[in-house]
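Following up on my earlier thread - several people asked me to post the actual chain instead of describing it. Fair enough. Here it is, all 404 residues.
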Amino acid sequence: MTSSSNANASNNAIAPHGGRLINRMLRGEMRQAVRERAQKLFKLDLSPMSLSDLELIASGAMSPLTGFMGQADYERVVEEMRLSNGMVWSIPITLPVDRETAVLIQLDQEIALCENGRVLAVMEVTEKFEYDKQREAQLVYQTTEEKHPGVARLYTQGDILLGGEIWVVDLPEATETEFPELRHTPAQTRRMFARRGWRRVVGFQTRNPIHRAHEYIQKTALEIVDGLLVHPLVGETKKDDIPADVRIASYEAILRDYYPAESVLLGVFPAAMRYAGPREAIFHALLRKNYGCTHFIVGRDHAGVGGYYGTYDAQLIFEQFKKEEIGIEILPFDYAFYCKKCGMVVSSKTCPHGKEDWVYLSGTQVREMLERGEMLPPEFTRPEVSQVLIEGMRAKREREKAEA
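Reply from S.P.:
Thanks for posting it. Predicted structure:
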């Protein structure tokens, strides 16, 4: 079995993190043999986050990782934002289990990783170790408060971490049911960039609908690169975030009418949202490098939640590392908004006017207006996007009523 694939679809492509694009998907006879063997193994059902991590490891999006972290990698990532070999990595990618389950699993034992009992992968458990959840919370999320969604998830997960490489025979069900036509792997996006002749590609991360400020930032970035990868996160998010299917419909509406088709590619990013702020900004940048992006946009409070992080902490954290260690060019953007006096979308760097002239809505205000069926101001977002969001939220409410 081999663990890597051709790193570059073009000689001009950016190198993946660690120098090679990992591939943990089995094919052909080997896949069938491992799948049959896995039926007799101890079966471990994965959480939504671990399912997302498994998919990203399998495709090489998490290169250079070949499985879930052992203790040496875990400890150094939490403490120093580096793997045990010194390579930059900011988020621990772990497989937690409860103590009762851990007792049933021995070191060097091969287990089957499953989704609702369906075997997805096999893993040789080479490590099994305890960890300090409060320490991880403080260092990774900068808080130990349970009201932080990432910390809350951390506190409820198992007390033991399993480490080991994985080999994947089948991907999670979401890969077939949720945006399969947009679920491009890193190898695929690299080929798509090469076919389009894009040598400089900027990636844009979002978990929200694209509004006018996003559009301003993306189009400004497009002035200095060949192509834009709009790469919305579609893994697990907070319950009050706008559903992924509604967001994707809004992206398609705005890209169809307001962006040059030859310069933009829409794909989905199947990661779970951790809300780790600055550390997650680094994580998102490194993974977009694996997808083939040469540039990555980091705006204000990237991957933030509540008031846990400073406005520009997600940009400043990159200064802790040498540029060559990150390997992807970071494009830091300031706060953008529509200014009534300027008559256009501007940023706090370019607008001389005061907040009384700015049109900006918080996420809470947007959700409340959509719940009431109100169109968002055209200065904030395009009317086509507002209409998609209103219809999508109405459908969501009707589904919830039917399920109640």
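The two ends are 48 Å apart (CA to CA). That should answer part of your original question.
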